[in-house]
Model the fold of this input.
Amino acid sequence: MTTSLPALLELFDLTEVGPDHFVGRSPHTSLIRVFGGQVAGQALAAAARTVGEGRLPHSLHAYFLRPGIVGRPIEFRVDRLRAGRAFDTRRVSATQDGRTIFEMSASFHVPEDGPQHQWPSPVAPPPDTLPTIEETIASDPELWPEFYLEWGSVDIRHVQAAESGAAESADDTTGSRQVWFKTSEPLPDDPILHSCLLACFTDLTLLSVALVPHGVPPRHDGYQMASLDHCVWFHRTPRVDDWMLYDQVSPSAGRGRGLAQGNVFAADGTLIATVVQEGLLRPVPADH
Done:
């Protein structure tokens, strides 16, 4: 569990056991499988350990291949696909008990000068006007997963904590949702650490957005849900111990899968990252 900040940071302090070979811990949790965002963040941390100083991640593309086993260590092996003057590319394989559970490619770049523009930041109420995730769950524990409480090191504020967790109207076909988040305490000034944590946090709330248009509350009883892939583009260096607004939407769902995408903005409106994820949305028979 990651209820404290030291416990959270320990997840991303990988042990090097050989050349480009690292081991990370996996805490016990209420989930039946390892949380995918944790594995993605750890894999990015492993890749970053093999690149030169000053090179920051600008994108990652990950696939979740098998459920990870909770409480068991995860091995990360890094392949150095490219080492260029401005870009480094890495492939990371995560395994448990000799079985591959996760694959990721990540690219690192030396920041350069160039043209700049971004989408405008959406309108959202300030985070300090919204209930904490503990208050939200306490208001209706039947609708909200307790898993959020295991991330006590992250302050999460849902903008639309609707009573039913359902779509706000029949026209809400995209299921757009907004979430503020930040760590509960300040972090070291390490841009790699902040990027790894952002990769992890962006998996906390995204996939459930694909069920909002169907009136399914965040606990999503009656559905088997699992991330299939996860992609992040880091436009600017994140600072996850400051408030960040995660603006999320689901363009499509069908054939047992749902697509969700999100933009992460700093509190001052700066666009930090773009995220896209596809996940399994499998209805569970009532007699299951």
Notes: Residues 36-48 form the longest helix (13 residues).
